[in-house]
Amino acid sequence: MKPSVLRNLLIGCVFSGLAMGAVFPFFADFFVEWKEDMFGWFVASCLVAGAACGSAIYWLVHVVLPERLKRISEIATAISRNDISHECAMQSDDMIGEIIGAFNHMAGNLRNVIGKISGATTQLAAAAEETSAITEETSRGVQAQRAEIDGIAAAMNEMTATVQEVALMLRTPPVRRTRRTTKPRAVRWLHPRRSAVSSRC
Which of 67, 50, 47, 38 minimizes the C-alpha distance to 13? Predict the structure, then answer.
């Protein structure tokens, strides 16, 4: 059997009424003169009346107390379902009122904590977007720098090739052109002809 506060309260109220009904006849014996065979009936009547009083007290408590506790239970159930907008408006200058006040204070603290978490989450999302934008901009800058470095490297390679080509041209000696000389036979052939002409003259 599961424990129950209300069941324990019912048992306590009934036993208290029975105890009062059992004690009352002996207390009344000091002031009342009993008729013959009436004391037993009076004791039984007191026991029944005590049990009835205990049951009536339990019924009153069961009507008044759980009605307020039910409202607290409803708010607790709503908070467990992520709905923190509820608040218990009942007022009572006793322990129940203290419980209600503590419960409302707890609900207010939960609202404040959730509000702070929501604000921090919004700030974190904004910071993440800003970081993403900075990262993209940095990536574009790095790509542009890589393109410039590649262009500079290509230009340096071309300059190196040009310098090597010029150096190779400077190291190679120029080719000298030689003039053709007339052969002595031609000269010998011309001289006899000149002598013949001179002889004819």
Answer: 50
